[in-house]
Structure formats: structure tokens, C-alpha cells
Write a structure and sequence with these properties.
17 helices, 20% strand, single chain, alpha/beta, binds 3-methyl-2-oxobutanoic acid, Double Stranded RNA Binding Domain, TIM Barrel, binds zinc ion
């Protein structure tokens, strides 16, 4: 363990993917994982292989690909889960198995229906089995913050005896407050035999908005791994936000005296990539990565910043990778120029993706004249999402209606030489277009939410539509970009349905 170093454990692809509506395919997970590696994340929790074939596949493929970051697979404290986790992660350059079991009485009684002795033995056996496969094992006593401390200590001690190298203390339900969490950590450092030989980690949920504060309180007590997710994604209100933790450690290193291995200049790009691929927009006033995080509105602040930046800015926008983009491509730009600019922005598309992105880029450049770096990025990300055989929107026509006729839409979808055209009427043009898509694909779907944002400022900006759909029991998110809001909506709708159809 490097002195003064806090290890960043990113769980965007596991706990983050448990956010309602997020459903990432393997290609999308790979794209995010490679960016997390570029960002300098120490450990990437790639998934929970026992829960689905998709997760198993993703962990296997990420393990084969990532060379710098450690790859971690999650497993319940059950032999079959641990075997499956190892099967998926064993190809990684640096694999880790993370096994967990609840230790609070409330979970033992109502969920596990086991005694404390049984759970302690399950934890012991799980770590032992995982260590039989892998040198690097992490153990988590789930719901630690509502567990009886003396019992928690004994479970942690058993995990150390069986060879766990990292002990993670989760605030699973986001219940703790910073001083209380620090007290729990101090109790662990003082009472658990062998604790000095392992890394203590924390995993905080944000139900009370305290995930980052709790994690930092733990770090001040000696925790040296923090579990977090990009844009604070995760179950319910999410996990501690990676960007907030990292930038606090960086900006306040004067007080905390700690550092991470993160290249903070990659933060903005990582946040945008995760937002676009998950379909979860970032709130404008979100710390570090929100659109307004570095915007000064009041005259007094603007005046101060113009005279001396540090009057009202505690960090430089450039330190998180926010740079004015000078990239502009026009309708005469070629495929090579697009490829070059995308690579400058950090996007490496394969041939097929680049061909499709170029086609779309041309269509948009014809309508809009020129595309900025942000526009190009949004277009490219639509095609990175292309996985398996997807339905594509190849033609559409809408009529706003009038006294005589209701709004209507005719759309054409194509997939591998198959073409379907459908016409539908609706309450408005967006409704009609979505209905036509639904009918063409013969899927029942209910709209849960619909948001439109402008990618850049000004009237000529591309519209970015995010749609959440309920299809059966599942909630899926889709995103679409166009100069035309109806078309962006149709693309977002189709993007969401493609996710359901590819499963
Ligand atoms: O919140 C939690 O307790 C978890 C565990 C699996 C670490 O996600
Ligand atoms: Zn969690």
C-alpha cells in the first residue's frame, strides 16, 4: 500500500448499473471501462456474474481487455456465486473477487433468515473459497452501519483470518452521518485483530445526500479505498460520486494530505460518456461536472473572476478537462477528418461504427452547416451504442395536423435488409412517431419520462432527447440527437426499444 494514497474503486458498471432504467450492453460497458482505465481508476467493479449471462459476458470481456486497472467481480457469499465470479474474472491481468453478506440483525432476520453464527461461518467460507482461486479478495459486511459493532468486528476478523486483503464497510442504505461513520471506522481500527495488514474501504450510498461526506470522514480515519461511481450513479439515490471525491482529495490536499492516481483532466469526458451511454442526464448544478459548475452568473462574481480567477473559483475548469473546444467540422469535412477529431476527443470507433456515424454526421452537417466538438461527440456516441443487429430509422415524415386531420407520422425502420414502414396518428407529432415505431416493432411500451436538452447554446443547437420507457417489468432509457426534436425523440424511442429487443 502506497503511503498517503487513496485507491479509487469504481462501481459505475455494477452498482451504477443498478440505477433504474440503466441497461448497458457489453460494447457500451467496454467503452466506459476503457475510459475509466484512462481516467486512472485503480479497481473497476465490472459486474455481478452470477446474476445474468450478460453480466458474466461483460466481466469476461472486460477482463480480457483491461491491462492497467484491476478488474473485480461481485459474488454473494455462496459457493456457486464465487465460482461464477472467478470463471468470469480469471482472464484479467489483475483479478479481484468481491464477496459480501449482510451482518445487520434486520437483514439476518427478515432477508437471510439466518443466525449470526451461520452468517459468520458463511462469510468465512466465502472468503476461503475465493482465496482458493484468487490472491486478491475483498469482503463486505452489507448494511454494516446498522450492524451491532461487536458482531461486525468478529465477522471482519474471520474474513482477515481467511485471507481477505480488503475489508469494505458499506453504508448500504445511506443511513449514517459523518461523525457517526467516523466513529464506526475508529471502532473497527481499534478492535479488529489484524486490521493493520489490510486495506479498509468504504462504500456509501447517498439516500441522505451524505455519501461523499461519509466517505471523506472515513478516509480521515484511515480508510484507503473509496467505492464510488461516475456522476454518483447507483442503487436508489446512488453511490458517492467519483468526481466529487477525487476533486475534494485534490483541491483540499492541503488539509487531507492524500492523493489518488486519477488524471483529473479525464473527468469531464468520463462524465459525459457515462451520461450519454446510460441515458442519465447530469443535473446542471451538479458539483464538478454539472453544466453550471464553473459558470459565474452574478456581476460581483464575474467582476472578481475577471480580475483574479481565484477570487471565486477554488479549482480551474481545465483541471477537470473542461476546455473550450475549437473543433468545428462542416459539410465538406471528410470521413478522415471526423475520425481524427473523434480520436482527439478520445473516441475510437470501429469501421462499422465510423461509417454509420459519418453518414449521420453528413446528414446533420447538411442541415446545420457545421458541428462543434460537443455535437460530434453526441453523434458518435449514438453509434457506439450500436450493438448486435439494431433497427435503424431510415425515413420519417410527420404532419402536425390541423382542424381536419390529427397529427400523424410515417416511419421506416430497417434491420439487416428487412424493412418496415408504419403510419400512426397521435396526440402530437412525437406521440405519433413513437406510436408508429411501437407498431412497426410490435412492442408494448409505456412512456415513463421524456426530457429535451440543447447540446450547445443557441437556437441552432442539436436537441438531445432522453426517454425512459417501461416495457413489461423493465425500465429502459433511450437517447437520440437531431436538429429536429421530433426526429431526436423518435431516435431516443427506438434506441430504448433496441435495448429491449437485443436481450
Ligand atoms: O451497498 C452495498 O452494500 C453494496 C455491497 C454489495 C457492497 O453494494
Ligand atoms: Zn451499494
Amino acid at each position: 500500500m502506497e503511503k498517503g494514497r487513496v485507491y479509487i474503486f469504481d462501481t459505475t458498471l455494477r452498482d451504477g448499473e443498478q440505477s433504474p432504467g440503466i441497461c448497458l450492453g457489453v460494447r457500451e460497458k467496454l467503452e466506459i471501462a476503457e475510459q475509466l482505465q484512462r481516467l486512472g481508476v485503480d479497481i473497476i467493479e465490472a459486474g455481478f456474474p452470477a446474476t445474468s449471462e450478460g453480466d458474466f459476458d461483460a466481466v469476461t470481456q472486460l477482463s480480457a481487455k483491461l491491462t492497467e486497472s484491476r478488474v473485480c467481480a461481485l459474488a454473494r457469499a455462496r459457493p456457486d456465486d464465487i465460482d461464477r465470479a472467478w470463471e468470469a474474472v480469471k482472464g484479467a491481468a489483475s483479478p479481484r473477487i468481491h464477496t459480501f453478506i449482510s451482518t445487520s440483525d434486520i437483514h439476518l432476520e427478515h432477508q437471510l433468515r439466518k443466525t449470526r453464527e451461520q452468517v459468520l461461518e458463511m462469510a468465512r467460507q466465502a472468503v476461503k473459497r475465493a482465496r482458493g482461486y484468487c490472491e486478491d479478495v475483498e469482503f463486505s459486511p452489507m448494511d454494516a452501519t446498522r450492524s451491532e459493532p461487536a458482531y461486525l468486528y468478529s465477522v471482519l476478523e474471520s474474513a482477515i483470518e481467511e485471507g481477505a486483503g480488503t475489508l469494505n464497510i458499506p453504508d448500504t442504505v445511506g443511513y449514517s452521518v459523518p461523525a457517526e461513520f467516523a466513529e464506526l471506522l475508529r471502532g473497527i481500527f481499534e478492535n479488529v485483530r489484524g486490521i493493520e495488514g489490510v486495506i479498509v474501504s468504504v462504500h456509501c450510498h447517498n439516500d441522505l445526500g451524505l455519501a461523499v461526506a461519509n466517505s471523506l470522514a472515513a478516509v480521515e480515519c484511515g480508510a484507503r479505498q473509496v467505492e464510488c461511481a461516475v456522476n454518483g450513479l447507483g442503487e436508489r439515490a446512488g453511490n458517492a460520486s467519483l468526481e466529487e471525491l477525487v476533486m475534494t482529495l485534490k483541491v483540499r490536499s492541503d488539509r487531507l494530505g492524500l492523493s489518488t492516481g486519477i488524471d483529473s483532466k479525464e473527468i469531464s469526458r468520463t462524465s459525459r460518456l457515462v451520461s450519454l451511454l446510460t441515458g442519465y442526464p447530469v443535473q446542471p448544478n451538479k458539483a464538478i461536472v454539472g453544466r453550471n459548475a464553473f459558470a459565474h452568473e452574478s456581476g460581483i462574481h464575474q467582476d472578481g473572476v475577471l480580475k483574479e480567477r481565484t477570487t471565486y473559483e477554488i479549482m480551474d475548469a481545465e483541471s477537470v478537462g473542461l476546455v473550450e473546444s475549437d473543433i468545428v467540422l462542416g459539410k465538406h469535412s471528410g470521413r478522415h477528418a471526423l475520425k481524427e477529431q473523434l480520436e482527439r476527443l478520445g473516441y475510437y470507433l470501429n469501421e462499422e461504427e465510423l461509417n454509420q456515424a459519418f453518414k449521420r454526421f453528413k446528414e446533420l452537417a447538411d442541415k446545420k452547416g457545421s458541428l462543434s466538438g460537443e455535437d460530434i461527440e453526441a453523434v458518435a456516441l449514438e453509434y457506439i451504442r450500436t450493438e448486435g443487429q439494431q433497427w435503424k430509422l431510415t425515413a420519417y415524415e410527420v404532419h402536425s395536423g390541423g382542424h381536419e386531420a390529427p397529427p400523424s407520422a410515417t416511419i421506416t425502420l430497417e434491420r439487416e435488409g428487412e424493412r418496415r414502414t408504419e403510419r400512426a396518428i397521435g396526440d402530437g407529432m412525437v406521440d405519433a412517431a413513437c406510436k408508429a415505431i411501437r407498431e412497426a416493432l410490435n412492442v408494448e411500451a409505456k412512456l415513463h419520462s421524456f426530457t429535451v436538452e440543447a447540446i450547445t447554446e443557441g437556437l441552432e443547437s442539436l436537441g438531445d432527447v432522453t426517454i425512459q420507457l417501461d416495457v413489461g417489468e423493465q425500465r429502459v432509457v433511450g437517447r437520440g440527437v437531431s436538429t429536429d426534436i421530433v426526429e431526436a425523440s423518435a431516435r431516443a424511442y427506438l434506441n430504448a426499444l433496441n435495448k429491449v429487443l437485443r436481450q
